[in-house]
Automatic annotation (TrEMBL):
Site for Lowers pKa of active site Tyr, residues: K77
Record-linked SUPFAM superfamilies: NAD(P)-linked oxidoreductase
Stored Pfam families: Aldo_ket_red (PF00248)
Organism name: Agrococcus jenensis
UniProt xrefs under InterPro entries: AKR (IPR020471), Aldo/ket_reductase_CS (IPR018170), NAD(P)_OxRdtase_dom_sf (IPR036812), NADP_OxRdtase_dom (IPR023210)
Active site: Y49 (proton donor)
The name this protein goes by in its record: Diketogulonate reductase-like aldo/keto reductase
Residue positions binding substrate: H110
Keyword Cell inner membrane: no
Gene Ontology MF terms in the entry: oxidoreductase activity, acting on the CH-OH group of donors, NAD or NADP as acceptor
Length: 275
């Protein structure tokens, strides 16, 4: 199993977790059961995904079955579509907290909302919730370096993680360098390019040369960049496969071939396109 990544606040979290985006609520419990049984200790959830009650129930089942809860990092993210006032943020957080259990290990701002200029105030509310002991670590998602500079500059508090879309088409080198300079963990969402990268012939050739699957080759690439990632699968055998990435490493030629795949292509919709 890949090593843990140290966090700026003195805590740590697994480099490799599994995501629950678009996992229907009636399947989420089984996915979490399978993920924990496979050995995952990082669960990447969010208010938006609509399955937090099922995720929390599956975690509680596992703990009743003997799993040490303190080994888990269960995460959630604030969506904040309607309002980002302190009261609204607290209400959204309270719903996630009730579903997942308190304290929440890692809570992130899902998207910055620059059009409304509120993400610094939202960040202040997350800092307060952390200081009240209801969140262990606070982070952000889909922030650019400009957004990061603003929250850091205006509050003095760094996010431990910025979860952003990243895969070989979109390696995010500049943002990763900014994160590294400040000790912020880069955590990739859609790390497999929503599965479309699995059919890439370069990835296929590299995977075959190492006797691994395309997904395993891409996951290895993420880990060798020094970041974390949360690939999603609803299939137990794929969840196990995605965690089984310690037996090989990509060499310089592999990394150069993957670097040449960069196109800047995004598989997800950026919030600025929606506002
Ligand atoms: P499924 O959930 O049916 O297993 P990303 O994390 O980049 O968004 O990619 C998720 C997509 O990749 C999902 O469609 C998932 O399908 C698929 N996927 C995840 N792991 C594997 C794997 N090891 N082999 C093939 N497809 C995978």
């Amino acid at each position: 199993m890949p090593a843990d990544l140290p966090l700026l606040d003195g805590r740590s979290m697994p480099a490799l977790g599994f995501g629950l985006y678009k996992v229907p609520a009636d399947e989420a419990g089984a996915v979490v059961d399978a993920g924990l049984a496979a050995g995952y200790r990082l669960i990447d959830g969010a208010e938006l995904y609509g399955n937090e009650r099922e995720v929390g129930d599956a975690v509680r089942r596992a703990v009743e079955g003997g799993l040490d809860r303190t080994t888990l990092t269960v995460t959630s993210k604030l969506w904040g579509e309607q309002s980002q006032s302190a009261d609204a943020v607290r209400a959204s957080f309270a719903a996630s907290e009730a579903a997942l259990g308190s304290p929440v290990d890692l809570y992130m701002i899902h998207w910055p909302r620059p059009a409304r200029g509120q993400f610094v105030d939202v960040w202040r509310t997350l800092i307060a919730l952390r200081d009240e002991g209801r969140i262990r670590s606070i982070g952000v998602s889909n922030f650019t370096d400009e957004h990061l500079r603003r929250i850091i500059g205006e509050t003095g508090v760094f996010p431990v993680v910025n979860q952003v879309e990243s895969h070989p088409w979109l390696p995010q080198h500049e943002l990763r360098a900014f994160h590294a300079a400040h000790g912020i963990v880069t955590q990739a969402w859609s790390p497999l390019g929503r599965s479309r990268l699995l059919d890439d012939p370069v990835i296929g050739r590299i995977a075959a040369a190492h006797g691994v699957s395309p997904a395993q080759a891409i996951i290895r690439w993420h880990l060798q960049l020094g970041g974390g990632l949360t690939p999603k699968s609803t299939h137990p055998e794929r969840l196990r496969e995605n965690l089984d990435v310690d037996g090989f490493s990509l060499d310089d030629d592999d990394l150069a071939a993957i670097a040449a795949l960069e196109t800047g292509e995004r598989t997800g919709t950026h919030p600025d396109d929606r506002q």
